[in-house]
Each structure stands twice: as structure tokens, then as C-alpha cells.
Amino acid sequence: MKLFRAIHQPFHRPIRTAVAILAVAVVPAGAVAVPALAGSSTATTAAAVATSKCPTGWGSLPEASKFAGAGQLTDVRTGRHACFDRIVFDVKGKPSWFRVHYVPNVYTVGQGNLVPLRGGAKLEIILSVPSYDDDYRSTYNPANRNELTNVSGYRTFRQVVDTGSFEGETAIGVGVRARLPFRVFTLGGQGSTSRIVVDVAHRW
Which stretch is the leader sequence (predicted)? Predict the structure, then answer.
């Protein structure tokens, strides 16, 4: 999703201004633009264009899928976008049932221990895929279950935690800056793989 486009200016503008415009307009896909000149009219215009193109119609009520699949979780990834922060779950197999909802607290699966999360709100993501195969061999074994990815510098995400995989389900806790709107969808991958994607907006 490209949220920024080049802003065309007359050719008689000073070279310094043209360079500043290109610094704002040319942004890699999925990156967060940082204005070249803080407080300039060009930076303000670029920010306004980005905001006006952000998706709308998202909400903060629970989301759940209406289909079932089979597979195993193989990876968890996060990324920053112009309008939202994204978390992606890579699955070996077809898209599976999921439930995403805000909760007062997050607990470890099977044990019920409270899991502290940074941020003003807590988003729980439950996937009907385990992080182990039929022989109980791990298919996803993060180095640090309390910090699945490095989300420092993200506008919305504050922490991503693996709260456990038990009886065919895996639960993930996401610390969010505030109770912000989100969306959930699935994507096909190469071969028999698939992805479950959760986007949480930067603002209402």
C-alpha cells in the first residue's frame, strides 16, 4: 500500500527546496516518512496527504474468522507503515481460525499467570495453530518470548509477547499505545503456506 506520491513543483523553484521535496516524497514501500525540514510547509503538506489516504472503517471490537484450517506457526514478524503498525503470523498450512480482541489483562496459556505488557491497552491474538508439529517438535522457537520482535520506535506497538501454545492453539499478547482500531485478514503464501495479518492504526 503506497500512501505517499511525488508532489510536483514548478521547475523554477530553488534547488534546495526541490531536494527537500524529494526527501519527503520518495519513501520506500512500508517505511515511515520523516520530514526533511521540520515545520516546513512541504512537510505539513506531505503529512496531510498521508493522513487523508489512511484506511477508515476499522474498529476496536473483537474480530474472529469463520473458517478452520490446519497447520503450524513458523514465524512472527512486525513492521511499521505510514498509517498503522503490522504484525504477521507465518503459517505452514492453510489459513486457520483466529480471534483478536482487547482484554483487561493477558495470561499465559494453560497456566493462567499474569503477563505484564507495556502500553495503555492489551490486544490478545489467538490462533488455532500450534507452534509445534504432530510429533511435538517446535516449529517456532523465539529467542525471547517476552520480546518476539523489536518494536522500539513504533508508533502503536509497545511489546509483543508469546503467551504459550497449548492444545492446538497459540496465543500472542500485544501491548498497544492505546485502544486503537485494527483490522485482521489472511493472505496466501508460497506453496502450502499462509499468513494472518493484524494491522493496528496509529490513530482513530
Answer: 1-38
